[in-house]
Amino acid sequence: MDSRRWLYLGSATTFAILQLFLVVVLSQETQKYNFGPFNDSMINRELYVIPMAWLNFGALQLSPDSVVDGTLRNKSGRVFINKPFKLWDDTRIASFNTSFLMNIYPVVNNTPGEGIAFIIGPSLSIPPLSYGQYLGLTNQLTDGNSSNQIVAVEFDTVKQDFDPDDNHVGLDINGVVSKVTVPLSKFGFKLAASNPRFYMVWVEYDGVKKEMEVYMAESQYHYHGPIVAEKPSKAVLSSHLDLKGLVNDMSYFGFSASTGNYFELNAIVRWNLSVEVLPNNNMSSARNDNYWWKTGVGVVVGAPLLALLITGVMPFLRRKIRESGSDPKLLSTLRRLPGTPSEFRFRELKIATNNFHDSNKLGQGGFGIVYRGTLPKEKLQMAVKKFSRDSIKGISDFLAELTIINRLRHKNLVRLLGWCHNKGTLLLVYEYMPNGSLDNHIFFEKGTTKTPLSWSLRYKILLDVAFALNYLHNEYDQKVVHRDLKASNIMLDSDFNARLGDFGLARTLDNEKTSYAEGVPAGTRGYIAPECLYTGKATCESDVYGFGAVLLEVVCGQRPWAKIGGHHFLVGWVWQLHGEGKILEAVDLRLGNDFVAEEAERILTLGLACSHPMAPVRPKMQTIIQIISGSVPVPQVPPFKPPFVWPAVDQGPTAATLECSPINTTFFAR
Ligand SMILES: *[C@@H]1O[C@H](CO)[C@@H](O)[C@H](O)[C@H]1NC(C)=O
Ligand SMILES: *[C@@H]1O[C@H](CO)[C@@H](O)[C@H](O)[C@H]1NC(C)=O
Ligand SMILES: *[C@@H]1O[C@H](CO)[C@@H](O)[C@H](O)[C@H]1NC(C)=O
Ligand SMILES: *[C@@H]1O[C@H](CO)[C@@H](O)[C@H](O)[C@H]1NC(C)=O
Ligand SMILES: *[C@@H]1O[C@H](CO)[C@@H](O)[C@H](O)[C@H]1NC(C)=O
Ligand SMILES: *[C@@H]1O[C@H](CO)[C@@H](O)[C@H](O)[C@H]1NC(C)=O
């Protein structure tokens, strides 16, 4: 072995030791969830909803908010996060914080009942559901039994014999007879006030000190959302609490509530949870008494070695690690991602995709192959994107895609369900789109029996895509450019709703890396705006150009790079027909007369406006939506395709007339 090899081995060993040290001693990673507003699409994904709880009006309605079986009395329900958390092991107890906005409403001017509990429970189906007086925690047979393994913080609005009053907070262990109770009136809080009040609650558990603290503050709720109060400095309830042994080491977080002879609405409007991540379960179970000793030795031996190597070898080492794709930073970034996507196990995905079998291949993108998969247990279909291993840029692309997609929420975007990282292989798991991509419904080999999409579907799909792009450009808190808009990236769900997918190239605009310097991706000829080849940068305007190409191909049934009528690109041909006053001749012949001429003319003309060689002249997404839906006329398009000039010159009044106007917000109302 040459010295370089030794150096590498040595440093790798040291690094492994350091890693272990970091994981064991310094691990401060948390898993974070931010929920709310709540909606049905979370059911059986992020949330496990146990009737009579349900999701309505953007909130968890833990007990029914409308009459069920003739009454609101004697009902209970629970909602859990659909996955367990590791709460303790041999050596430590996880800390966690949660905060939620709660609203209790006594329906008529009635006696309220019964309350809400924040609950830590051992499984999704424990114990049989209650009615009346047990807050959805237990029932008359199970209440108080230590095999329940339940810890809860109750907000109780009914006075039982064992309660101080009908307006208190309590710490419940395995039953509704609280270990500690604190009346809330002395703080000026009224849980079930006849004019409903919103309360923010913070529950903080310190696994080292074994202390639980509950804070409360009244909050305001306006039609546009809650105004969350500051956490007060003084807790309303604090108690020593040793979760180890009390709750299951793998436990679920959630809420429960009940009504009884009296009733009220029990709603959770917003919910945040952050849980300290304990080292991997399997690793910890392999630990023994020597563990700390070994770690100690590792550190003592490793640290000086590390100090020695760190200066000279670190850069080399870091590169090595990045190249091998097992950057520990990556994993921790992934695990710290806010929001909902969950980590899948590689084995799970391997089974789901039949070992990434060719017959499960859905498609191939710039960065990897997409497979169809089915989780056997849940029968959940999904699309698994496996990033190609040899792409060194893979990790940053992967992270870019993940961090952006993870935070995007729109009904016309393909949803991310989770991710997986295994020995340098990166995978993303998406919702499965049964109808595949748009291009498969417009272009197909001659001789197939497939019928091309109807006009009304094409029209609706284009509007859907416009909504998605407008969201990316204007409605999300950062401007996001998609960069890779084309028919093969537009997915269709079971109802033929269009969903924009493949954010492999998506980048937020405040990130400098919107560059085409790495080259124009294959299969995108005709979708890329001319200025991009000069600036190397994707912009909202270049997305609009791509959208224009999609408009034309969907109406014409021709690829953007189709050589037609003596033109090199579809857009040249359509522009010529437009100049000759016969633009409707461009409409897909396969549609025959089954299209709406006025709509087709509007979309083709809009397609040309979007394809304007000068970026500033192209309409903005907000305007485009209004144009497609017919509430704003199509801008004037010159009879001849204008030349592209670089650098872009001020287009004067033409540009001004195309400035986007404020959009009518009611347009988005459902
Ligand atoms: C909980 O919040 C406290 C501050 O109130 C913070 O110090 C602690 O790190 C948080 N713990 C977790 C697990 O988020
Ligand atoms: C949840 O966290 C977000 C981001 O930190 C914050 O804006 C929001 O107010 C929190 N909501 C609750 C209910 O704590
Ligand atoms: C507690 O629950 C367990 C399991 O359901 C049961 O076997 C046991 O008899 C219960 N104990 C009491 C005191 O009810
Ligand atoms: C609720 O259930 C309890 C226990 O079975 C019963 O005693 C009570 O009458 C019920 N109340 C109503 C209003 O149905
Ligand atoms: C440890 O890993 C095995 C195999 O991957 C798995 O079946 C088991 O559930 C894991 N243990 C825990 C405590 O999660
Ligand atoms: C429900 O919420 C999710 C996550 O916030 C969001 O992506 C989705 O669009 C929402 N669905 C509806 C129908 O509002």
UniProtKB/TrEMBL annotation:
Question: Sorted alphabetically, which PROSITE patterns does this protein's record hold?
Answer: LECTIN_LEGUME_BETA, PROTEIN_KINASE_ATP, PROTEIN_KINASE_DOM, PROTEIN_KINASE_ST
* Family annotation (SUPFAM superfamilies): Concanavalin A-like lectins/glucanases, Protein kinase-like (PK-like)
Please give, as recorded in its UniProt entry, the membrane topology of this protein.
Single-pass type I membrane protein
Q: Which residues bind ATP?
A: K386
UniProt key word Iron: no
Q: Which UniProt keywords apply?
A: ATP-binding, Cell membrane, Glycoprotein, Kinase, Lectin, Membrane, Nucleotide-binding, Receptor, Serine/threonine-protein kinase, Signal, Transferase, Transmembrane, Transmembrane helix
Q: Where in the cell is it found?
A: Cell membrane
GO cellular-component terms in the record? Answer: plasma membrane
Where are the membrane-spanning stretches?
291-317
EC number(s) in its UniProt entry?
A: 2.7.11.1
Give the primary localization class.
membrane
Alphabetized GO MF terms:
ATP binding; carbohydrate binding; protein serine/threonine kinase activity
Keyword Repeat set for record: no
A Pfam family of the record is: Lectin_legB
Residues in the signal sequence: 1-27
The segment(s) forming the Protein kinase domain are 356-645
Q: What InterPro entries does the record tag this protein with?
A: ConA-like_dom_sf, Kinase-like_dom_sf, L-type_Lectin-RKs, Lectin_legB_Mn/Ca_BS, Legume_lectin_dom, Prot_kinase_dom, Protein_kinase_ATP_BS, Ser/Thr_kinase_AS
**Family note:** Belongs to the leguminous lectin family. In the C-terminal section; belongs to the protein kinase superfamily. Ser/Thr protein kinase family.
Q: Which PANTHER family match?
A: PTHR27007
Q: What is this protein called?
A: non-specific serine/threonine protein kinase
